[in-house]
Amino acid sequence: MNKKNENNIRSGFVGIIGAPNAGKSTLLNQVLGQKISITSKKPQTTRDRILGIVNSPSSQIIFIDTPGIHKSTTLLNKRIVDQAMLALEDVDVILFMVDVANRNYSAEKLIISQLKKIPKIVVLSLNKIDLVKKSEVFNLVEELKKLHDFKAIIPVSAKKGIQVKNILEEVEKSLPTGPRLFPEETFTDVSEKFMVKEIIREKVFRLTGMEIPYSSAVTVDSFEVEKKLIVIHASIHVIRDSQKGIIIGKKGSMLSKIGAKARKDIEQMTGQRVLLKLFVKVTKNWVSNARMLNEFGY
């Protein structure tokens, strides 16, 4: 592609917002064709801003997967929601995702009230349409189009890839003309070390009870690349001794399971053999401690 054509493509930032568990991370992984954002059936899985880049001959769409917007209680949750709202200020297009199978009315109301304050193009995506009747989707379209001036309303199933292509086409049309902002081979701005942290945290979310994930954080203490092996030491932080016992499990069974599943995904991501050593630490009240939140990167 010559330089003249490169300068005439469409490129820009798209902020994906929605309630917890609306399917934002699933959509990002789907459009990228690979996993960079962790997912689970539990809400509030995403805590960090994740950037994913979709390149095509005619565009470069830079998606920002934001944490789910929800009612803030702990300092951690307040920082997460602030981060999500802050991301909207610097994007060209907002992609608002609604879970049609499990509506979160309070989050929808909060998000729409914020959208009215921001002069941005907004595309509405109605996700998980494979789980409800077509008539319900039609009624929801009629309901929501009265609440905001959306550029488009697109029913999709992010998990199954249904009409996801339509989102890309609609978003591309809404982006400004200009050169690519990242090299064409780039698909994310996050490091392997960050992805290791997220992979381990995903396994904690998927394998433990409802209380544990929201009280846990992961730090990668060392990441050493040797000739044929990557050696990783990581810590899972919880707020109580009882939670430490649950993470470790009987005779270390749960920690072993978390480690085995995480190691498999890390090896797939890096293409190398991995030695993963996990430790569990009690870091009391870290979710409300500003210093610890800063240390953990929140």
Write the layout of secondary structure elements.
Layout: H1 3-7, E1 10-18, H2 24-32, E2 50-56, E3 59-65, H3 75-87, E4 93-99, H4 105-115, E5 121-127, H5 134-144, E6 152-155, H6 164-174, H7 192-207, H8 211-214, E7 217-225, E8 229-238, H9 241-248, H10 253-270, E9 273-282, H11 290-295
Parallel strand pairs: 1-3, 1-4, 4-5, 5-6, 8-9
Antiparallel strand pairs: 2-3, 7-8
Can you offer a commentary on this structure?
By secondary structure, the chain is of the alpha/beta class. It folds into two domains: 3-174, Rossmann fold (3-Layer(aba) Sandwich), CATH 3.40.50; 192-295, GMP Synthetase, Chain A, domain 3, CATH 3.30.300.20. 38% of the residues lie in helices and 23% in strands. The protein is built from eleven helices and nine strands. Helix 4 (105-115) links the parallel strand 4 (93-99) and strand 5 (121-127). Helix 7 runs antiparallel to helix 10 (253-270). The termini are far apart. 38% of the residues are buried. Mean pLDDT is 83; it is low at 38-48.
Would you tell me the structural class of the helices and strands? alpha/beta
Biggest sheet strand line-up: 2-3-1-4-5-6
Number of domains: 2
Query: What is the CATH-assigned architecture of the largest domain?
Result: 3-Layer(aba) Sandwich
